[in-house]
Amino acid sequence: MATVRAFQRSCPAPPSRLSSRFSRPLRSSRFSRPSFASAASSAEASKASSDSSSSTMALAASEHQFVEKVLVNAEDIQARTAEMGKQLAAEFADAKPLVVCVLRGAAPFHTDLTRAMQPAPVGIEVDYIRASSYHGAATTTSGDVQLTTAGAADVKGRTVILVEDICDTGTTLRKLVDYCRAAGANSVTVVSLLNKQARRVVDLSDVDLRIAFEIPDEFVIGFGLDFDERFRTLPYVGVLRPGTDIN
Ligand SMILES: O=P(O)(O)OC[C@H]1O[C@H](OP(=O)(O)OP(=O)(O)O)[C@H](O)[C@@H]1O
After folding, report:
1. Domains in the chain, number
2. Where is the Phosphoribosyltransferase domain (predicted)?
3. From the CA of 174, how far away is ligand 1's center (Å)?
4. Domain of 182, in residue numbers
5. Mean pLDDT calculated for residue range 208-222
6. CATH no. for residue 224?
């Protein structure tokens, strides 16, 4: 079983923000377009949008209709990221950490988290690696994780902090951690915005994994997470509305 260390037990994911209807998985990877009327009646999506800045809301307004329910709102993501950033900064103050963003999904979380790492550890660097295994409109992993190094920095001898948007089956993280270790990283710590423990099929018990929010077995979108490359700019994490057809 995976070792999922709650990052800061004094600041758990707020249960009141998570839906109690956790049990219904998506039955199909194909979806049909919902009516605008049903979208307009989504109180949770409206609430989430009103929690966000007006500029962000304008960007994402047309995308709210594809959200069945909000799991983690923008305010809670911001608060949790600030807590985690502060703690990471203290823990890695003397380690010259290399904070690696797993593209594309982790980009917003990585940006906010690294900015929240204050006071910044002396010598902190950022880098980017692309990992891709959910292709097109798939809601299940292909199992074939393609890695592409995007930066010049080398993980050899470095204290690496991998930043992910979601740990689902664990396939991607397994490959990334093994890659960093094989390349000579001193240590590898993983920080993931979301964890879907119910879907884990890969053993990560040897991985130092820090989780911001536990979520149920639902296909989620927003805050970097996509369905067929859409919805990454939603300012919150929500469940993709069953029946969604983005074409
Ligand atoms: O635990 P797993 O089952 O491996 O799933 C997690 C991975 O899936 C997503 O990546 P994806 O391949 O969709 O690429 P993306 O980040 O560019 O969306 C996500 O960003 C994680 O990296």
Report:
1. 1
2. 80-227
3. 12
4. 74-234
5. 98
6. 3.40.50.2020
